[in-house]
Each structure stands twice: as C-alpha cells, then as structure tokens.
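quick one: GEK bound model?
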Amino acid sequence: MSEDRIYTTDDKGEPFRFNENVARVFPDMLRRSIPGYAASIEAIGSLAARYVRAGTNCYDLGCSLGAATLAMRQGIREPACRIVAVDSARAMIERCREVIAEDDRLNGPETDVDVVEGDIRDISFVNASMVVLNYTLQFVEPGDRGELLRNIREGMNDGGVLVLSEKVADENPEMETLLVELHHEHKRRNHYSDLEIARKRAALENVLVPETVATHRARLSNAGFSHSAVWLRYFNFVSVIAIR
Ligand code: GEK
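yep, here:
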C-alpha cells in the first residue's frame, strides 16, 4: 500500500482534490485519517447480507476505489443483484475498475458491478435495496444534499437500507474543539506530522463541509426515511443507518 505523504511536500495551498496523487495513496489515507473507517466497511458487508434482496440494485455513491462495493459484493446472499459504483473523479474510477476486474478474476463475478464515472446528483436510482454514502455526502454542496437524499429514497424499495457515514460538527463549540483535537491526536498516532495535519485541514476548508448529527437525521426524516440510528461514532466521525 503506498504511503500518504502528500502534505509533507506537495502543498501549494490549493483546495483538496481527488486527483491521481490522492488515488495512488488513498487506502493508506483513509485508514490513517478516518477513525472507524474499517468498522464502516465491515458493517456494510453485514448490512448487505441482511438487507439486499434478490434481483435488486445496490448503489455505492462516491465509491473511490470500491472498498464498500467489494464489502457489499462479499456480503450479498441473494442472486441476480447489481451494484452501481459511482464517482466523479476520473483517477478514482480508473483505479476502481482495476480493483473490480481483479475481484472478478479472483472471486468470480457473482454479483455484477457497473463502475460509473459521474456526479451522484445526476443518477437515477431504481429498485434499490441498499445505498451507501460512505464519507461522500460531506463533499456535496449542502444546498444539494436534501434533493439527493429524496432522489435516493424515491429509488429505494420499502425496507431498503441507506448507510450514511460522515465527518460531523458539534453544536457546542467546546465539544467541537475537543472532538477535533482528539481526531488530530489520532492522526498524530498514525504518523501524520502537525504540519501535514494543518495543511490538510486548510485544503479541506469549504471542500468537506460537516454538519451536525441532528441536521443529518432531520434531513433523512424529511427525505422520507422512516427511521434512522447512529450505529458508529468515533470522535467526530459517525455512521448512520436509515430505513426506507
Ligand atoms: C470508501 N466511499 O472507501 N459525485 C460523485 N462522487 C463524488 C461527489 C459527487 N458529487 N463528490 C465527491 N465524490 C469511499 C470513500 S471518499 C471519502 C469516499 C474521503 C467522491 C470523491 O471523488 C471521492 O472519491 C469520494 O466521493 C469521497 O468507502 O475522501 O474522505
């Protein structure tokens, strides 16, 4: 796995982008940066086993290199399903296609996967029993998030599951400061320097826009999801499941 050293050298003070440099080191970046990332992927596999129905579609939105897609593929117990993996970053999609082709070769394509380069705001969702937004909604403009969730919900079957994982903000400024500091300590333990942490934070400003857990859950409810629950929280990173 290539090591993420992007902000040791490569800093021109530009906003963060999902380019070739990022795609090359991405698994290492997520593993060292997102507390709870591995747990989110593991749970996506378990939820696929429980919720995905025969002959339905699953969507992995902002699939990056396809980690959640592979977890769903391994978890699905039913026949004739299809996973649609979508990302707008060409560098991610190119590598994701290689990852899926390798999985086809090693494990056989029991569940078909379509890897689509595109914006998740432009996708039509149909006959979906599972939809995953694993740390992706945070990159969508806040004003577009409600409509996206309504579109997703409209394309889901009754009883289908949405997994929404996000970096979140806290309503209370003191708690917010504490959670951010705990996250930065976590990154230091994972061998990011103070300079790398500070540069990455600046690059993500206005690119990754976190909201509170209450805002996310209210939006899910407004979009028509019947109930939701936080199943994972690790500092300022949460994962929510919502049922159609
Ligand atoms: C994982 N889910 O490994 N349309 C399509 N893709 C988008 C959009 C958009 N509007 N906005 C952002 N992306 C993955 C990790 S990473 C999380 C997801 C992170 C894509 C973007 O190109 C990137 O690949 C992904 O969302 C977010 O479980 O980097 O913190």
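Residues 37-169+211-243 form a domain with the Rossmann fold fold (CATH 3.40.50.150).
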